[in-house]
């Protein structure tokens, strides 16, 4: 399926690994000119080279923390205009809410709410002017199913969803869409590290914890990042102009609600 994205400029934040990298790869396959980002310059350059070799795409790598204004500006300056923005950032670690002090609270809100909003502010008017824009925000299944220990992540990402819900309706007339992808358990380094921490706390083998987690999913498996990347690429496609303000949960059937 031709997604109608050849030659479009796409920024994918936090994309040197995991779900962000999967999204970047699929957009490169669709013909986009990419700007990818990560904090570790060596890992980022390695990801950029891998994507270039696999797809032949033009890939610009901008290293740094996207909560910093100068990094945001460098991302946007890497291409002439921004047609696609994929907001992504690592979430706060598991912790009891009683241990979340003010500094940690503000850092979580900056990383998972304020920063993506700032990036949207920087690109949206140009998208409206050009009558094309796709913004995809990677949040979390915990927005719909809050989990104890992920309270800060859930709250900040839910805040982002609520903030941008009205914005999405205000620009839909200009073929600019804003949507949200909510990942469940995907086979990424973050998931595996979480299993390792839980295993150590319980005195179990990491594989035993992974098996328990897997069995709790109706699909009986973890998601493949490539599946997530394909969903992201479709929401960015020319054919997805009638999707906006939506939260697409991809969790193998864990969430049992109908809304």
Automatic annotation (TrEMBL):
SUPFAM superfamilies: NAD(P)-binding Rossmann-fold domains
Gene3D superfamilies: NAD(P)-binding Rossmann-like Domain (3.40.50.720)
Pfam entry (one): adh_short_C2
InterPro entries: NAD(P)-bd_dom_sf, SDR, SDR_fam
Entry similarity comment: Belongs to the short-chain dehydrogenases/reductases (SDR) family.
Full protein name: 3-oxoacyl-ACP reductase
Organism encoding this protein: Rhizobium sullae (Rhizobium hedysari)
Upper lineage: Bacteria, Pseudomonadati, Pseudomonadota, Alphaproteobacteria, Hyphomicrobiales
């Amino acid at each position: 399926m031709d997604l109608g994205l050849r030659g479009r400029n796409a920024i994918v934040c936090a994309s040197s690994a995991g779900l962000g990298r999967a999204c970047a790869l699929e957009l490169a396959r669709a013909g986009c000119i990419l700007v990818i980002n990560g904090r570790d310059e060596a890992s980022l350059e390695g990801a950029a080279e891998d994507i270039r070799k696999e797809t032949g795409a033009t890939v610009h790598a901008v290293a740094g923390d996207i909560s910093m204004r100068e990094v945001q500006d460098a991302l946007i300056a890497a291409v002439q205009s921004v047609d696609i923005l994929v907001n992504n950032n690592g979430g706060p670690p598991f912790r009891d809410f009683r241990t979340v002090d003010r500094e940690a609270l503000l850092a979580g809100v900056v990383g998972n709410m304020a920063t993506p909003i700032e990036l949207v502010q920087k690109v949206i008017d140009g998208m409206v002017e050009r009558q094309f824009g796709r913004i995809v925000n990677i949040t979390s299944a915990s927005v719909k199913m809050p989990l104890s220990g992920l309270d800060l992540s859930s709250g900040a990402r839910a805040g982002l969803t609520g903030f941008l819900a009205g914005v999405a309706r205000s620009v839909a007339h200009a073929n600019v869409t804003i949507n949200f992808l909510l990942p469940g358990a995907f086979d990424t380094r973050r998931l595996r590290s979480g299993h390792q921490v839980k295993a150590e706390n319980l005195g179990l083998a990491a594989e035993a914890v992974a098996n328990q987690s897997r069995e709790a999913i109706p699909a009986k498996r973890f998601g493949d990042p490539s599946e997530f990347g394909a969903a992201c690429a479709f929401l960015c496609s020319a054919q997805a102009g009638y999707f906006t303000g939506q939260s697409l949960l991809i969790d193998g059937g864990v969430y049992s609600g109908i809304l």
